[in-house]
Design a protein that fits this description.
By secondary structure, the protein is mainly alpha-helical. The chain has four helices and no strands. The chain starts with a helix and ends in an 11-residue tail after the last helix.
Amino acid sequence: MQQKNWRHFWWELGINVILPALPLFLIIDGFIGMAENDPFHPDVFVLFGVLLMGILSLGMLIWFGIRLHRLGWRRLPNYERALFIFYALWFILGLVAWLAFSEVIPPTWFIW
C-alpha cells in the first residue's frame, strides 16, 4: 500500500511540473519571435500561452479547492498545499499578464 502512495505522489508531481511547461514554452518562444521582429505574428504565441496558463491554473485551483473543501487545510498534504498556493499565484500572474498584454490595463501602470 505504501508503494502505491509514493507512485501516486510522483505521478501527480510529474503532471504538475509538465502542465506549466507548455504555456511557459509558448510565452518564451513568442517573446523571442517578437524580439527578432518575426513577421509570422509571434504575439499570438504569447497570448495563447498566457490564456493557456490562466485556464490551466483555474482548473487546478478548482481541483485543489474541491480537495480543500473535502479534507480541510489541516488534513491536506503539504505538497498539495504548496501546489494550491503556486496555482493561485500562477492564476494571478496569468490574469495580470493577459490584461496587460491585451491592453485592458494601461502599460503606463508598469513603468516605475
